[in-house]
Design a protein that fits this description.
Elements: H1 2-9, H2 12-39, H3 46-67, E1 116-121, E2 126-129, H4 141-144, H5 147-154, E3 163-166, E4 169-177, E5 194-202, H6 207-214, H7 218-264, H8 279-342, H9 347-370, H10 380-395, E6 398-403, H11 410-429, E7 435-443, E8 446-453, H12 468-478, E9 482-487, E10 493-500
Parallel strand pairs: 6-7
Antiparallel strand pairs: 1-2, 1-5, 3-4, 4-5, 7-8, 8-10, 9-10
């Protein structure tokens, strides 16, 4: 019982169900990966993003210089108001030339790098920014900005820096001076005069780095939870779908398995209904065709074996009759002949001699019937000629044979051979015929076999003790042919057999 359940679990149904689950999971993971790919920021290469960061810095430098000619008021919130912070994302403008900097008046959720712009005075103090919570006005830039940026500011260097790691993540940044910069350290100016514009944008070198930054977001966690729940729910759904989808197929395969076991046990009459036009349906049709062919072949083999056994038994009986009975009959005839010669008037001796002669003739005809001619692949006509020769040589009967060489199937050959033997034996034994005529021709789509004798004849409509005529009619009926008997007492008999041939 355990092995049967194990085979069912790891059988076709289990494998199909597992394949459904794996394929479904793979499809779901692929779809989720595509969705996440669209939800994650469009990753641009470092050169393009750096160019956008630089363009953004130049634009803000020009805007601040034009908007605040007397200096930027301390605490001014830079950037575009009304836009979400979107930490971890660098969103370009429609033309892609620069970045959109959101104005974040409140706290920034999480510890993610954001797109930000900071205005810095010449003395290194933050004047204004787009995110006051991260870059408070009045604070030294050195304490708020990355080290490479403050180094560039204090050294009066125009810096377009690459990626820099900060406590909020990896960013691409630039430092853009406002107005001409003299060599050496900048002179002290008022706190409202902007000397530098600092712009940063979050940057990830690849998908997995971007994901590691995005996983800290509340929305990303919700997305992960939804994806995980969907993947977990796929397992029972896949099991149910696999069982329902494979149920009919497994039932058909198990029915085919039972049929093959029945054939292996010797039942060749098993048939399977064709339950579809797919490969299993064609297999069922081919299986039924195979069992029918096997059943026909087995029946033919059994019939052939039975016929061979009958022929072997007839040959054995013929040998016994020839070796034993024929010798006694011959001795009895010789004794009767000697008694008749010694006592010419002995009527009993004469009668015994006549009876023994008739018995020997009947026995010879019986031996010819019991020892059938063998076809041996030579054809029907040579086998019939052999039968005619046997009656001619062994019984001294005149036989006129007119036989055409015709090609017929093996069952027809066998039947016509046995019919000829049966008819000749009946003519000799029961009709005391001394002349026979055997002819065979092929005409008008059939083979015609005729056996005529010069015996005593009989009334075909009368009842007969023997079964020879019934056997002949049965053989001809199996071939779909006809058997006609023309006879009357005192004028012999003619048997005409016609078998249709294509």
């Amino acid at each position: 019982m355990l092995n049967r359940r194990r085979r069912r679990v790891w059988g076709l149904s289990g494998r199909l169900t597992a394949s459904y689950i794996v394929v479904t999971l793979a499809v779901v993971v692929l779809v989720e990966a595509l969705v996440l790919g669209f939800q994650l920021p469009s990753l641009v290469n470092g050169a393009q993003l750096q160019a956008q960061v630089g363009a953004t810095a130049k634009t803000y430098a020009a805007q601040l210089a034009g908007r605040y000619p007397n200096g930027v008021p301390a605490g001014t919130v830079l950037g575009d108001t009304g836009l979400p912070a979107r930490p971890g994302q660098a969103i370009p403008t429609r033309d892609g030339s620069m970045l959109i900097v959101p104005a974040i008046t409140g706290a920034v959720g999480g510890r993610q790098a954001i797109t930000a712009v900071v205005a810095i005075a010449a003395n290194g103090t933050v004047i204004a920014s787009s995110a006051p919570s991260q870059y408070p006005p009045g604070r030294p830039a050195a304490s708020e900005l990355p080290g490479p940026a403050t180094t560039a500011i204090t050294g009066g260097v125009i810096a377009k820096l690459g990626s820099v790691s900060t406590r909020y993540g990896t960013v691409l940044l630039t430092v853009e001076p406002v107005g001409p910069i003299r060599a050496g350290k900048p002179t002290a100016t008022g706190p409202r005069e902007v000397a530098y514009i600092y712009v940063q944008a979050p940057w990830s070198p690849g998908f997995f780095a971007e994901w590691s930054e995005l996983r800290h977001l509340g929305g990303a966690r919700a997305l992960l939870f939804t994806s995980s729940a969907l993947l977990i729910a796929i397992v029972p759904v896949g099991v149910l779908f696999g069982l329902l989808a494979s149920r009919r197929l497994v039932h058909r395969v198990r029915r085919l398995e039972r049929a093959t076991l029945a054939v292996a046990d010797g039942d060749y009459n098993v048939t399977l209904p064709v339950s579809g036009r797919d490969e299993v349906g064609r297999l069922e049709a081919n299986f039924t065709s195979m069992t029918r062919q096997l059943s026909s072949a087995l029946a033919a083999e059994r019939q052939r074996a039975s016929a061979d056994a009958r022929d072997a038994e007839r040959a054995r009986i013929a040998r016994e009759i020839h070796d034993a009975v024929s010798q006694h009959l011959f001795a009895l005839r010789m004794i009767a002949a000697g008694m008749r010669r010694a006592y010419p008037g002995n009527e009993q001796a004469l009668e015994i001699e006549h009876i023994s002669e008739d018995a020997v003739r009947d026995m010879q005809a019986l031996l010819i019937e019991l020892r059938p001619a063998i076809l041996n692949g030579a054809g029907l006509a040579p086998a019939l000629r052999e039968i005619c020769a046997s009656y001619r040589h062994r019984l001294g009967i005149t036989v006129d044979a007119n036989l055409e060489d015709v090609t017929v199937p093996a069952p027809v050959e066998h039947a016509l051979l046995r019919i000829t033997q049966e008819a000749c034996t009946n003519a000799v034994r029961h009709g005391n015929a001394r002349q026979l005529a055997v002819s065979m021709t092929r005409q008008n789509g059939h083979v015609e076999l005729a056996i005529r004798d010069s015996g005593t004849g009989f009334d075909p409509a009368a009842q007969h003790a023997g079964s020879g005529l019934a056997h002949i009619r049965d053989r001809v009926a199996e071939l779909g042919g006809t058997a006609d008997i023309d006879s009357a007492p005192g004028r012999g008999a003619t048997l005409t057999v016609r078998v249709p041939m294509p």
